[in-house]
Amino acid sequence: MGSMVFQEEIPVRGKAYDVIVAGGGVAGLAAALTARRAGKKVLLIEKSTMLGGLATLGLINLFVPMCNGRGKQIIFGLAEEFLRYSIQYGWCRMPDEWRNGEPKQPTEVRYIASFSPNIFAVALTEFFAAEGIELLFDVTVSTPVMEGKHCKGLIIQGKSGREFIRGSIIVDTTGDADLLRRAGVPTRKRGNFTTYMGRMITLDGCRRAAESGRIEDAFSRVSGYAIDLHGRNQPPEIPLCDGTDTDQVSHYIELNQRKLFENIKGDTPESREIVTLPGMAQLRTTCCIDGDYTLQESDTYRHFDDSIGATCDFERRDFLYEMPYRILIRSGFDNLITAGRSAAGEGYAWDVIRVIPPAIITGQAAGNAAVVALDSRCGIDKVDVVKVQAKQAEQNVMLHFDDALIPKDLENAGEPGEDYGHI
């Protein structure tokens, strides 16, 4: 590929922000809300026209288990606030055992909730605007302007063209570490399976909904290759997708849409309708930072002094992790931090931390770290983590799991709770 030199005078937006969050998925929302509630001037930039990321636009509308599979809740804080908000105005599916909080008796029923993605998205817009967070929709963050390892601000691209915007702390929640990668932060990549799911309504579904009185029963999922989280059904001739490459992402979407169409084009036209296709590539683990620490599957049941939140395994009961602050930062980059699915993880541990509840926890931690860095006038890579932890704890985040929850017989721990391989 060749190259060219292009010079352009770019207007500078008048406002400067304490915190700029790039990416309006759940991790970015948590970071923005946390910083704003601490009184900071916050800008949230979203490349699409709705908030929520994979949870809404991507149709992965499921708060996976927030308990250990034995009736003990592990994940609280903003994750629970968002869960309860996601089901406030639209349909929801949640086990009766968890509707009023943690059950009084042990149960193997897990604390999960599915919700209306579109209603949650518009509810989030109202909620975040009311919180005083400035929102930019349909805007892409293209380039971090760097001075060494310090980010002076961001070049954004929207309907007004390119503009430069200033921010003291930058939170990258693009999902693919786009910003930090372009800023020179070392990253690691992992190919994604060819997954793609839309939402369909059928006459049979309408009949089910009429009988049950529940609108969600009218819908079903429609897929291309029906590939699950672990790659079952992945055609060997189709390479995994690197979500950081324009051509590969375009090919991924084209391939999936053509396969989905192949699957349904023989149906009776009057019997079904595809009501929603994902508005973004449903990629999960494309690129994460090579952080000061990388979480491993072997870190199960390990305590970290700098833990910013405990989390559970959404597929296996009993398995517990702590997420150290170091998975969100790279030393030397004094005002850049990430959260969500681009936090540093490897193998299955990356899958554990990238789903909705732990992504919100890491987003909340990024917001609190930004506040501490600004108030202490220090780099976000050098914040006093104890202060970040104190804020997390005040906001009802479990920092360290109770060792009493570790099974005495580890060989019999971790049996699956339900099949979440599709998420």
What does this structure look like?
- This protein has 423 residues and is α/β, with parallel strands linked by helices.
- It folds into two domains: 14-190 and 286-409, FAD/NAD(P)-binding domain (3-Layer(bba) Sandwich), CATH 3.50.50.60; 197-276, no CATH class.
- The chain has helices at 26-37, 77-86, 117-130, 178-182, 203-212, 246-264, 348-354, 356-376, 385-394; strands spanning 12-22, 42-45, 62-63, 92-93, 113-115, 134-136, 140-147, 150-158, 161-172, 187-189, 197-202, 219-223, 272-276, 287-289, 307-312, 320-324, 336-338.
- The strands form five sheets. Strands 1, 2, 6, 7, 8, 9 and 17 form a seven-stranded mixed sheet that branches. It has a three-stranded antiparallel sheet with strand order 3-5-4.
- The model has no long low-confidence stretch (mean pLDDT 94).
Provide keyphrases for this structure.
423 residues, alpha/beta, 3-stranded antiparallel β-sheet, 9 helices, 26% helix, 21% strand, globular
What would a concise description of this structure say?
The protein has 423 residues and is of the alpha/beta class.
* Secondary structure tally: strands: 17
Shape descriptor: globular
Which CATH architecture of the largest domain would you pick? Answer: 3-Layer(bba) Sandwich
From the alpha-carbon coordinates, what is the Rg to the nearest angstrom? 21 Å
- The average pLDDT value, as a whole number, equals 94
- In total, how many domains does the architecture comprise? 2
CATH superfamily of the largest domain: FAD/NAD(P)-binding domain
Main β-sheet: number of strands, strand sense, barrel status?
Answer: 7 strands, mixed
List low-pLDDT spans: none
Class from helix and strand fractions: alpha/beta
H/E element string?
EHEEHEEHEEEEHEEHEHEEEEEHHH
Strand content: 15-25%
Helix content: 25-40%
- Reading off the top of the CATH hierarchy, the class of the largest domain is best stated as Alpha Beta
